[in-house]
Amino acid sequence: MTNAPPPPSTAAQSARTILTRLHEVMASRANAQGKLNQVVGIIGECLDSEVCSIYLLREGALELYATRGLKQEAVHVTRLGLGEGLVGMIADQIETLNLDEAAAHPDFSYRPETGEELFHSFAGVPIIRRERAVGVLCVQHADPRRYDDIEIETLQTVAMVLSELISNADLVDTAARTDAAAADQSAQRLNGQKLVDGMGAGVAVFHQPRITIEHTVADDTEAERHRVYAAFDKMREQIDRMASSADFGVGGEHEEVIETYKMFAYDEGWSRRINEAIDSGLTAEAAIERVQQRTRMRMRQIDDPLLRDRMHDLEDLSNRLIRIVSGQMGTAAQMGGLRQDSILIARNLGPAELLEYDRRRLKGVVLEEGSLTAHVIIVARAMGVPVMGRVSDVRASIREGDLLLLDSAAGSVHVRPTQAVQDAFDAKLEVSQKRRANLASLRDLPAVTKDGVPIELMINAGLREDIAALDLTGARGIGLFRTEFQFLVSATLPSRDRQQRLYRDVLDAAGDRPVIFRTVDIGGDKALPYMNVGDSAQEENPAMGWRALRLALEREGLLKVQARALMEAAAGRTLNVMFPMVSEPWEYEAARDLFVGQRAWLASHNKKLPVAIRYGAMLEVPGLLETLDLMLPHLDFLSIGTNDLTQFLFAADRAHPRLAERYDWLSPTVMRYLARVVRTVSGSKVALGVCGEMGGRPLEAMALLGVGIERLSITPAGVGPVKAMIRSLDLGALRADMPAILAQPSSNPRGQYQDWADSHQVDLGD
Ligand code: PEP
Ligand code: MG
User: Fold this and answer.
1) Nearest C-alpha to atom 1 of ligand 1 is from which residue?
2) C-alpha of residue 580 to centroid of ligand 2, in Å
3) Window from 72-81, 166-175, 689-698 with minimum mean pLDDT
């Protein structure tokens, strides 16, 4: 924030005029109803609007409390349920509406007692208290016209002040509703979505004891501005300190998280908007909250999950700023930390905030929001903390100190569990700990079948934290390193230096164990917000679109930078590089030629080079099998990506929830296809493996071995269970039975493999 504020904008001035008058009303001796009546008059007059109405939440419905312009008989008579009509929708969705023709909106609900048929245009904003809508402020006009941005922003600022007025006057009933629900002592089960797998038990700790903004209208604007300046300075100091002391070491995703934080902390646009809100007459706290509310509303309209996650980072900082400015500094971490085993609860959580907790006592996290790709989830995974997201109404169901049992794989958290639930949870936890301990004891044993066939078990990785899994699992190496992850978690395009640092760290950690780097698989559904690599929203079939190698060959600069970063990182060692989504041999040739060219360039500049470069392709596009024989002489290895391969074999979107269960990896379509690939490759020097999720499941892995696959690269969690399967398998017996299984598949192929495993005592876990 600069020290010379720009002159107040028109929006700020018009809000300020209204706020000054509202301030007088609030200070007056009128009763609450009298004040509301004056408020609608002032707003209607200042915005030159024929109608101005305030609806407040009472007994679960939105009741018309005050109006200028609608019939007075409707006051305290017209009531709309949450979600009913335009007003109900604004409160329910916490969103702003701005319509030139209200009646044309599908949610319009006509109430004859109000006389609103005379009015065409409509704009409404939610009145928000403690992140929930407690009412709606709206204006209407006889002419069909849209309200301009300045008017909408003014309404939003006024709504903020109103929330103070109505809660001071005890006019709404959310608090009562929430308290009643929270007072419920009975056991409850809340459902959500697994974000980080695991189980944990502990007492409920709310990350953020609520900060209630007591005063919204400022007495002295300049004083408020200085409070915000000071808070910004302090926040930036905190972020800079965090950057130098992040306890995950230098580099990696955490560095990128902090970089994103820094970008926002020093963002002029953000501080300017807060300054503008202060100009309109709000206190520092209210101004920050006002800007945050606007961000939240925008966030809801953003369809891009990555961008949404970045917005969560901004929200994290905004909360921090309010806490600093209000002197209510404490998150639970800052106010003494965790005193016992705890499950942390938050609406959402910033990654930096999570890092502030003592990980020995943090047994789990429950979020009201949260998404798989959020930064905080990457951090939680690295910390080994189970996380469940998308749990609704936690504040209403859980109280500080309640006992919680979190089972994120089951998508459940038990609140104040009964003894029976607790016993069942303990038993399940014990079994899973025992099984994990058993599997861990397999770590140093070879992955060899009962009849002596060695199987190469590698892991899939993509983040710096995943490297630790190599030692934990005892895997032979990394069979798929998804380099695009660094691009996806980054706020800006990773420079060659940053790429090179990551690759070198991975190779250093792997030591003698091989690492196969896959060149970036971006584009399509993995869009990068900071880079124009095609708009997935405009692609009808992004998975089949301009992605992976297709994109990389056209954006040569990107691939060249990556090629050099990989070669310099692997100087003096063997580099294994693999190209994704190869559809025809020429694409593979072109990518390899590009690498050969970059190698020559580095050599001509006297750079140290890898001692050898091994080239591989992914088989993900079914059609490639038709020309695979032409490619084999030029390949060192081939890796089957069954995630994409099966979606293309069945023409069934891998992310489509309705199709998720429809086709089985064990279906004869997949197994016969894979057997054909094995036949085509056999006799060549090409090493063939599978790196899709399929290989991480014991039964599917067994079937893969059955058709002749002997190299698997799988999710680290799958290594133990798959190794247990391998060590209990008589592969010769399975291969003898495979031709019959493929020739005469049953209508239930999964059952067929399962029966075979059962009758041959194959260890498939539980
Ligand atoms: C695959 O498609 O099977 C694969 C391993 O690649 P990704 O899951 O990254 O698309
Ligand atoms: Mg793939």
Assistant:
1) 641
2) 7
3) 166-175
Ligand 1 centroid to Cα of residue 720, in Å, is 21
How far apart are the CA of 252 and the centre of ligand 2, in A? 23
Please give the number of the atom of ligand 1 that sits closest to the Cα of 643.
3
- E strands present in 282-333: none
Atom of ligand 1 nearest to the CA of 644: 2
d(CA 418, CA 397): 16
* Residue identifier of the C-alpha nearest atom 4 of ligand 1: 641
47 in helix, strand or coil?
Answer: coil
Q: Mapping DSSP to helix (H, G, I), strand (E, B) and coil, where does residue 701 land?
A: helix
DSSP letter at 81 equals E
* 620 Cα to the center of ligand 2, angstroms: 6
Average pLDDT over residues 448-462: 96
Q: 412 forms bridges with which residues in the sheet?
A: 191, 407
Question: Alpha-carbon distance 190 to 390, whole Å?
Answer: 10
Distance CA 132, CA 406 (A): 26
Altogether, the residues listed in the chain come to a count of: 766
Helix (H, G, I), strand (E, B) or coil at 573: coil
Query: Each residue of 246-269: pLDDT tens digit?
Result: 444 444 555 666 777 788 888 888
Q: Whose CA is nearest to atom 8 of ligand 1?
A: 643
Query: Distance between CA atoms of 124 and 86, rounded to whole angstroms?
Result: 8
674 backbone dihedrals φ, ψ, rounded to 5°: -65, -40
**What ranges make up the beta strands (E) of 401-527?**
403-407, 412-415, 456-461, 478-482, 515-518
Q: Which residue has the tokens 């041959």?
A: 760
- Report in angstroms the alpha-carbon separations of 690 from 547, 651, 727: 21, 20, 19
Q: State whether residue 331 is helix, strand or coil.
A: coil
For the cut 70, the answer to whether the pLDDT of residue 26 exceeds it is yes
Atom of ligand 1 lying closest to residue 484 CA: 9
Judged by its nearest atom, the ligand closest to the C-alpha of residue 694 is 1
Predicted pLDDT at 177: 40
**Separation between Cα atoms, residue 692 and residue 677, nearest integer Å:** 15
Instruction: Give the torsion through C-alpha atoms of 565, 568, 573, 577, to 10 deg.
Output: 30
Pocket of ligand 1 (CB under 6 A): 480, 482, 521, 620, 641-644, 691-692
Q: Which ligand is nearest to the CA of 691?
A: 1
**For the residues 436-449, what does the mean pLDDT come to?**
89
Lateral strand order in the sheet of 121-129: 79-81, 61-68, 51-58, 132-141, 121-129, 97-99
pLDDT tens digit string along 511-566?
Answer: 999 999 999 998 766 667 666 655 555 677 778 888 899 999 998 899 999 999 99
For every residue of 386-423, DSSP letters joined together read: -EEE--TTHHHH--TT-EEEEETTTTEEEES--HHHHH
The CA 714 to ligand 1 mean position distance, Å, reads 11
Q: What is the pTM of this model?
A: 0.62
How remote is the CA of residue 485 from the centroid of ligand 2, in Å? 13
